[in-house]
Amino acid sequence: MIHTILSGMRPSGDLHIGNYLGALKNWVALQNSGQYRSYFMIADLHAMSEKFDPRKLPERVKSLAIDYLACGLDPDKSTIFIQSHIWEQPYLNWIFATLIPIAELERMHQFKEKASEYQHINAGLFTYPILQAADILIYKADTVPVGEDQVQHVELTRVIAKKFNNAFGMTFPEPQALLTPTPRVMSLTEPASKMSKSKGEKNYIALSDEPETIRKKIRSAVTDTQIKGEMSPGVKNLFTLLEAFTSNRKIYTDLLTSCTAGTLKYQDLKETLAEEIIKTLAPIQEKRANLEAHPEQLAEILAAGTEAARKVASATFQEVRAKTGLQ
Ligand code: AMP
Fold first, then answer.
1. Can you give the pTM of this predicted structure?
2. Does ligand 1 have an atom closer than 6 angstroms to the CB of 14?
């Protein structure tokens, strides 16, 4: 049986290595496995739920599409499109909004976390997971490769699918989140919380960071909140990153052994890690530069993606209209 994947990212700033290790790298592997019908979208409507600059949004959308391709998404194997181009998704969002109790949305960790950061919370931030459910279910995706922070939203998608199926007849699968071995990459500056675009540039390594910037950021990563006999959260994060980025496992195990023996110099760990990240990102950055030089190619890829996505979305939408009695 061919499974269907849908996932997306918000065009809300630089992609960082948390996005890469938590999601994008896995998207490419899943796409290449040949076992999935794959849809990857640029979640521009979701980006609007937080402060954004309308003048920068078009560039950010393009830049994210370039990141997708530079990391290995292939338009011959996956449907790559912009969320707002498929109007059936926000339409389905409305139908789902009529099914889901407010209390279910109030439980969402991401909403609670963001609500505590902002003075004014817009309704879009609150209903964010309903639109996400519409994005996923309109393609009848059963697999959603995301980072850990999105697991609760995928659970809510299952609740919504179940409610719709119970009310109007079997229509949607109940999708599962698919995590990577690094589902939650931590911040370099505050290693107790996740790496995030919103915490400032020093807390993350962007996929587009220059080698010297990467060295600098890793050099100043927090390591020193050591609890006796236990690896501190900062050091643990650096080891997690090293394990994910190095293709030579011995490099990782040697450093880990000296850490356990108490002889590790954090400087050695940091220098090694920085070079491994630089090595991994170099071909991605090179591909990015090529894609930037050919904007017409990008426009064609996105137009073809929209067309392919719309065929599926519109079929589901007609089915939903018929089942819900809309004329
Ligand atoms: P967003 O930046 O919220 O649009 O997230 C895009 C994708 O990256 C989602 O699948 C997130 O779960 C994932 N992601 C974001 N931050 C991290 C992180 N620090 N570690 C692992 N995955 C992450």
1. 0.95
2. no
